[in-house]
Amino acid sequence: MQSEHLKFFIERGFLLDNEMLKFFSELSDEGVANQILDKIRTVSNERVITKSLIDKNIGQIQDLFLSLEDEKKQLVERYFVNLSLNIEIKKEKYVQERKSEDSTSLRIISPSIVPARKIEVDDFVKHFRNRYMEIKQILQERSELQNLTSIDRINGQRQNLSVIVIVSGKRLTKNKNILLDVEDLTGRSYALINQNKKELYEKAQGVIMDEVIGLKCTGSREMLFVNDIVYPDAAIFEKKKSDSEVYALFTSDIHVGSDKFLETNFLRFIDWVNGEINPNDAIKKIKYLFIVGDNVDGVGIYPGQEAFLSITDMKKQYDRLAELLGKIRKDIRIIMCPGQHDAVRVAEPQPAIGEDYGGELYKLKNLTLVTNPCYVSLVEGFDILMYHGASFNGVINDIDSLRVINAHKKPTLVIKELLKRRHLAPSHSSVIYIPGEKDPLLIRRIPDIITTGDLHRPDIDSYNNILMISNSCWQSQTAFEEKVGNIPDPCKVHMLNLKTRDIKILDFS
Fold first, then answer.
1. Partner of 186 at 20 to 30 A CA spacing, among 131, 242, 284, 422?
2. Cβ-Cβ contacts under 8 Å for 460 (sequence gap 6 or more)
3. Topology match between the domains 99-110+244-507 and 143-230
4. pTM greater than the 0.90 cutoff
C-alpha cells in the first residue's frame, strides 16, 4: 500500500520521508494529497516532503486540514500535535465564545488567545521582556529591595544596592560558590553567592533558569556579591469565608478510556454525591465540583498507548465521560479544565475542550468547560486558580531540594515554589507553551485557592493564607508510573466547606 502512495508522489515530482509516507498512507485520500501538493508547489521549491516542511508552511495548509472529516482531522492532529498550533489556535476562538455562556454564580477569567499566526523568535523575546517588566513591578513594591538600580547604572564598587534581574545561567565555581548569569533590560552581570553564607546558599540552590528575582548585593557592574535573594511571592491577608454553608469538591485525572480507569470507584463517588450512599445534610449543600484536567486518557499520547486503552477512540472516551458526569445531580456546577491527555493542544495555555471531540459534554447544562490555566470567581467571593500541572516534573527536576525529597509524593511543595515565583512554569524548558504579548502563565491575580492535578496524589497545605489543593486521580498505577517509581493515591476527593474553610479528604477506594 505504501509503495502505491510513494509512486503517486514520484509521478508528480515529489519524494516523501518515512514519516510523511506513513501519514499519507493512513490518510489514504488522493484528493487531499493533490491539494497539499498544489499548496507546496506555490510556496516552496522543495521536492522532498518532510514534517518540518509542512510545519514551515502550515499557514498555507491549515484551512485544508480544518476542512477534513473528524477521523482524518484526528490523524492530522496525531501527526502534527506540536506543529499545527495555528490550527489549534483557530479552533480556540470558537471554544472561547462557547465557554462564556455560564452560570450566574461563576465568573471565568481565561488567558487571552494568541491570534492565528506564525510564531517567530521575536515572539519569545517579547514574551520574556513583558514577563520581566510585570514581575519587576511586583518586586519594586518589596521594602527589602533598597537602593534599586539597573545594571548599566552601577558605577565602580557599590555598597547596599539592589537589582531586579532574570536568571540566564547558573553554575558552581571551583570553590563551590554559586555563580548566576543575570541580566536586566540594560545589561548583563554575574552574581556570586558564597557557600559560607549557609542560609543564603541554600536559598540560591533553589534558583532556577529564567525566573525573575530581586538581589540585595554589593559589588560592581561586572560582579555582584549577593547578600539576599527576594522573590516576587504571593500572599493574601484575609481568609475569605462564605456567609452560607456551601461545599466545593475537588478532583482530577479521571483518565476515562484507560484500562486502569477505576470506573467502579468513580461510580461510587457519583452515588455518594447524589445522596445514595450515607446521605447527610452536608451532601445536599455541595454546590461546586472542580475537575482539574486529564479527563480522558487520550489516544497517541505516548508510544504504544493503544495497548493500555479500554476505549481506543478519543471521541468515544469523551462520550463515556459525558455519560458518567451526566449522572451527577444537576444542581452541582461542574467546572472542568483540560490536561496533557485531553483533546486540545499540548502547549499552554490550553483551550477548553472543543465540541469536535467533546460534543456530548456540551449537552450537560451544569458543566462549564474552561481553559488551563483558568481563574474561577465564585459568587461566594473565592478566587480559584485551576492549573493541571504539566510544569511540575520540570520544576522538581530543577530544584535540588524538591528532587532529593521526591516532591512527587508531596505536590504542595511544588505549588509553593510556583506561588513564590508568581509563575506556573518559570523555566523555559519546564513546559511547552505559546508566547504571547502577556505571559499567560504569570500569576497576576493572587488566588484564595489554587488547585492542581497531574501528580495523582492528594495533598493539602496553606502558603501565605493561600489554600493549596493537589488532587488525586481515578487511575491505578500505570506501567509508566511503575517504571519511574511514581505511586498514585487514587479515588480521593477533597471537600471544602466555604463557610468554615474546613477541608476533608474523602476516600472512595
1. 422
2. 412, 467, 468, 469, 470, 494, 503, 505
3. no
4. no
The three-class DSSP label of residue 436 is coil
Over its C-alpha atoms, the chain yields an Rg (Å, rounded) of 25
**How do the residues of the chain divide into helix, strand and coil, expressed in percent and rounded to 5?**
35, 25, 40
Cα gap 290→269, rounded to integer Å:
14
Query: Which CATH superfamily does the domain covering 143-230 fall into?
Result: Nucleic acid-binding proteins (2.40.50.140)
Per the CB < 8 A criterion, the answer to whether 377 and 370 are in contact is no
Helix H or strand E segment including 459: strand 459-463
Three-state SS at 191: strand
| 8 A C-beta contact, residue 191 and residue 258 | no
If you ran DSSP here, which 8-state letter would residue 171 be given?
E
**Averaged pLDDT, groups of 10, the chain, 509 residues long:** 68 78 77 72 72 68 63 66 42 40 68 67 89 94 91 86 94 94 94 94 94 94 94 92 95 95 96 92 95 92 85 94 96 95 90 92 94 93 94 91 89 96 92 85 94 95 96 89 82 96 95
- Among residues 258, 202, 122, the alpha carbon closest in space to that of 400 is found at 202
Please state whether beta strands 374-378 and 106-109 pair in parallel, antiparallel, or not at all (unpaired). Answer: antiparallel
In terms of CATH architecture, what is 99-110+244-507? 4-Layer Sandwich (3.60)
**8 Å CB contact between 253 and 473:** yes
CA atoms within 13 A on the CB side of 218: 5
DSSP letter at 237? S
